[in-house]
Amino acid sequence: MIAIVDYDIGNLAAVSNMLRRIGYDSVITADPEMIASAEKLILPGNGHFDTCMRNIRASGLLPLIERRVFHERVPLLGICVGAQMLGIGSEEGAEPGLGWFDMKVRRFPRMEGLRVPHMGWNEVVVPETGHPLVQGLGNDARFYFVHSYYFEPDDSIDVLLKAEYGIEFAAGIARGNVVGVQFHPEKSHRFGKQLLLNFAEGRT
Description:
Order of helices and strands: EHEHEHHEHEEEEEEEEH
CATH superfamily: Class I glutamine amidotransferase (GATase) domain
CATH architecture: 3-Layer(aba) Sandwich
Radius of gyration: 16 Å
Number of helices: 6
Number of domains: 1
Largest sheet: 9 strands, mixed
Number of strands: 12
Strand content: 25-35%
CATH class: Alpha Beta
């Protein structure tokens, strides 16, 4: 069972609906018992970075999530702000991040002819080495983005996927059993389905 962590940050149903379409059950939950028994965890994120960080800490779930991820090695997928939270902080706010990655979150610079937020479909460069999470995506992968901030890992080895919007930026990160994506796989049709299928089937 896949647990989508509910820490009061908005509509989480789209992720659950996409998982159901690919044949996997999930539960949107803040119940510690459900999170403690889940085979995989998804950390979504929506809205302001500081709000998300305050909410996850106020939920009381963070020690349990960290135990499951770091001691029990349960796979976790962070989505959008949920992926940004894995770093040490964001230029969007003042709250510290989770610090699971040596990674800062930057605002897109002003660029002539490009609007911020970056919103819409964007090609993503899939590594030739073929991390298990991106198996089957092919070299024409496109995902749906909605963001004004992007993550910047200190160590390039943590970069899983790259994209370009005026500048090149990391669109996905991975370290061990923890992965994060800046885009919304639940809104990305067949490419999003494939990525979530890879995660659901244990390809991390």
